[in-house]
Write a structure and sequence with these properties.
The protein is α+β, with helices and mostly antiparallel strands. The strands form 3 sheets. A 5-stranded antiparallel β-sheet has the order 1-2-3-4-5. A 5-stranded mixed β-sheet has the order 11-10-12-13-14, with helices on both faces. The chain is globular and about 90 Å long. The protein starts with 5 loop residues before the first helix and ends in a 6-residue tail after the last helix.
Length: 622
């Protein structure tokens, strides 16, 4: 095998910006003429990893790993020496020569070709949104939501045509082969000329360097899920990617702070409002991997998630995730900010739309500490012992005994109990494991309240049954949308199934059964994947058709009951209006709709077809 010449290797190494390469993986600070950071090779709380940019070397005084900048690239990127040299040669524009003559002309890898394809598709979708009549509806939707043209340009927003064969024809004319397009992730696997994204507003998803690696799509229609994302690929890993990180990174590095929002529209709204260090996860809960990525540059995370119950539950999980990974965490309290107004906006996008960018920016100034947020959530429990135990995972997530001691004092004061008693209960839990679960903070709130069926069990077991029997998904998706689900794990399974369904478009779907590795590999949450595998092994999904029938009935009832509550609130509001005469037609409409829903609920609930094992889930130790 040909070797690189020593001279060309030295030229490549001399060209490497050592700090730039290492800061791709961790945050460095200069102290006493050297650069220090937390070692990426072992867990530590005090920086012992040091970099010498002149010698292009690194060393960790904790784990004693060290070497050249090339060995660092090899270790972090899992590359061989020739691959690492090729990568640095390409990044810094210095050619490598072989012994005996010849220049290294290694063909760009598949990821580079995919990135070029995605760049072209991004530009095409963007043009369609702004310059064609087909994209006009989506453009007007954005403008009506308060998103202005500069923000549309900044995020390269686009529109995917309704004609599912258009993209294939367009790219084929540009010279892309059928085999390459089949591997691109942009088309259905069963029908390779049908685009995965069609008739949707498109949000390009970029890596930290601004290279488009995937897409998110929002439907403006009522059918199907509101949002879908590209599937994981060699280029894109959902659980390791953060939306708008490329646009936010400069401000994150400058302030060492980051705002975490819930979705694409929230991020765009906040950037338009001047909060340019805002990012979001991609349709799933905030992950430890994403927290580790942010830890390279940030010290504090501001959580600005939706004000509904799902958003508050997500905030609990995100707090623990931040604290586990050494990030300080505070909560933006828009509820308190808007308490004097008649309505409380659900999210940043709604604040921008209804109140404008200045109010959006001012609303971020109202914050509470994460421990105060967790205490307020825990107080929903009936007994103080349960409330205190709910906070133990938060104590576990703190990275020092000093911080833990301070929080225990705060907890004791909040519940008016002895500090020593909190310590004793916490230590007992650490020794025996009592009072602690491996589930989420949300699940720990709900477990002590045994009087009601666990909603998590109902939705998760329903989606789990369909997940291991995906042939049933066509029927399930005809009944409701992922937005109707309150449990985030159930929503995640629904979206995975929807993405799979759109890719495969299986016509003989009734024959599909058994949990495939293809679907399992799409689950980012390891606990959720384990849950599916274990319950399938236990036979919890042994009668999937019955589980689906009972579950969909339960969902229909739940959706109608929610609508009924909304109608009752509407009737109360109209009854207190200034002009009863003007409100009368509205009252009549609401009342007629309520009578219809009451009749539907009576029909569905009788003669008592709800399945008890769907309501509560199988009798297991989960």
């Amino acid at each position: 095998m040909a070797r690189f010449t020593e001279a060309s290797k030295e030229a490549v190494v001399d060209s490497i910006d050592t700090l730039a390469v290492i800061e791709d993986h961790l945050r460095l600070e200069k102290k006493s003429g050297r650069y220090w950071g937390l070692c990426p090779f072992h867990h530590e709380k005090t920086p012992s990893f040091t970099v010498d940019p002149e010698k292009k070397s690194y060393y960790c005084f904790g784990c004693h790993k060290g070497g050249s900048i090339v060995s660092f690239v090899m270790e972090m990127e899992k590359l061989s020496f020739p691959e690492a040299m090729e990568a640095m040669s390409k990044r810094f524009g210095v050619p490598l020569f072989y012994e005996g003559g010849g220049v290294s002309q290694k063909k760009e890898g598949k990821t580079d070709e995919l990135a070029e394809l995605y760049r072209r598709v991004t530009a095409s979708f963007h043009h369609i949104l702004l310059k064609t009549t087909e994209g006009e509806k989506s453009k007007q939707y954005l403008l009506n939501r308060g998103i202005e043209l500069p923000a549309i340009e900044k995020f390269s927003l686009g529109f995917a045509p309704a004609d599912r064969s258009w993209l294939y024809r367009f790219l084929s004319e540009k010279g892309f082969s059928a085999d390459f397009l089949a591997l691109s992730g942009l088309f259905s696997r069963r029908y390779p000329q049908n685009a995965f994204f069609s008739n949707r507003l498109i949000f390009p998803i970029a890596d930290k360097n601004g290279r488009t690696i995937a897409f998110g799509g929002r439907s403006l229609e009522t059918e199907g899920p509101k949002y879908i994302n590209s599937s994981d690929s060699d280029l894109f890993k959902k659980g390791r990617t953060l939306f708008a990180l490329d646009l936010a990174l400069g401000e994150i590095k400058r302030t060492k702070e980051v705002y975490l929002a819930e979705g694409y529209m929230d991020v765009i709204a906040l950037h338009q409002g001047g909060i340019t260090n805002t990012i979001a996860p991609l349709g799933t809960a905030f992950t430890d991997e994403q927290a580790k990525i942010l830890k390279r540059w940030a010290e504090k995370v501001y959580l600005m998630l939706d004000n509904d119950e799902a958003g508050q539950n997500a905030a609990q999980k995100a707090i623990l995730c931040c604290r586990r990974n050494g990030l300080e965490c505070v909560i933006v309290d828009t509820v308190s900010f808007f308490k004097e107004k008649k309505e409380i906006p659900k999210d940043p996008a709604e604040i921008l739309q209804k109140f404008g960018p200045e109010t959006l920016k001012n609303s971020l100034k109202k914050c509470i500490f994460d421990v105060d947020f967790m205490i307020s959530r825990s107080k929903a429990l009936k007994e103080s012992s349960q409330s205190v135990a709910f906070l133990f995972p938060y104590l576990d997530a703190l990275d020092s005994e000093v911080a833990r001691d301070g929080v225990i004092g705060t907890i004791a004061d909040a519940f008016r109990v002895e500090r020593r008693a909190v310590w004793e209960d916490y230590k007992r839990q650490k020794i025996t494991g009592s009072g602690r679960t491996d589930g989420s903070a949300t699940e720990q709130v709900k477990k002590p309240i045994a009087a009601k069926p666990v909603r998590t069990g109902f939705e998760l077991y329903l989606l789990g049954a369909v997940f291991v029997n995906p042939g049933l998904f066509r029927k399930l998706r005809s009944g409701f949308l992922p937005e109707d689900l309150e449990e985030s794990s159930a929503r995640e399974l629904y979206i995975i199934l929807e993405e799979w369904f759109r890719e495969t478009e299986v016509t003989d779907h009734e024959k599909r059964s058994g949990c495939s590795s293809e679907l399992l590999d799409r689950i980012q949450d390891g606990n959720l994947r384990d849950f599916i595998l274990r319950q399938e092994a236990l036979g919890s999904f042994a009668n999937p058709a019955k589980l689906l029938e009972d579950g969909m009935l339960r969902m229909k009832i739940k959706i109608l009951e929610k609508k009924r509550r909304e109608l009752i609130r509407g009737l109360r509001n109209t009854s207190h209006g200034d002009s009863q005469q003007n409100q009368a037609p509205r009252q009549a409409d609401l009342l007629a709709e309520k009578v219809y829903i009451d009749a539907e609920l009576t029909r569905l609930k009788n003669p008592g077809t709800n399945s008890r094992h769907i309501q509560k889930g199988p009798e297991t130790n989960e």
